[in-house]
Amino acid sequence: MTIVEITHEERAELAKALLDALGPLAAAVRARATGLPAERMWNAEPVEVALSVLSAWKLVDAEVKRLTEGAAATAGSYGASYEQLGAAWGITRQGARKKWPEAVSRPAAGSGSLRLFGGTVELTEDAAAGGWRWTATGADGTTGGSATGHRSREEAAAHAGAFLAAHTRATP
């Protein structure tokens, strides 16, 4: 993983830019909360002012998260992998997948069949339900399927595999 560092000067410039942007936001938040004009924000008890600033930072944090998700999705739409997203963020591939589960689009694998544990399973994408379904016939002849859609082809296959594992032929 590549760790991106910034210089002391860049950090100081970033802090100044963030504080410059935060001031008007904190004043507006405080004005809405108190009903007082924004220019009177600083004429309050220090704890009230500090809490207003903290509330404004929470709003900035939420916006940074939203923008970060957008940047990850954009990179994913251009072909970036979870490994690359993780490296850019300083986390593992698995961490990136967990942080931005929808960022990397994989081509639809389409419907298909699998043979497991002596049985067969058909996986189909259910566009109306926005997920995947499965129907299976176990090695012992038992049939089954999913009543609801699964979020991914892999999830549907895992459920179908568990069904097939439970319905193998009895050993004489």
What would a concise description of this structure say?
51% of the residues lie in helices and 13% in strands. It has helices at 8-34, 46-77, 82-89, 93-99, 153-166, and strands spanning 112-116, 119-126, 131-137, 143-145. Strands 1-2-3-4 form a four-stranded antiparallel sheet, with helices on one face.
Strand fraction equals 5-15%
Shape summary? elongated
Tell me the number of structural domains: 2
Please give the count of helices.
5
What is the H-and-E element order?
HHHHEEEEH
Biggest β-sheet, characterized?
A: 4 strands, antiparallel
Reading side by side through the largest sheet, how are the strands ordered?
1-2-3-4
Portion of residues within helices: 40-55%
> What is the strand tally?
4
Question: What gap, in angstroms, lies between the N and C termini?
Answer: 53 Å
Give the helix/strand class.
alpha+beta
Q: What do the pLDDT scores average to? A: 84
Low-confidence stretches: none
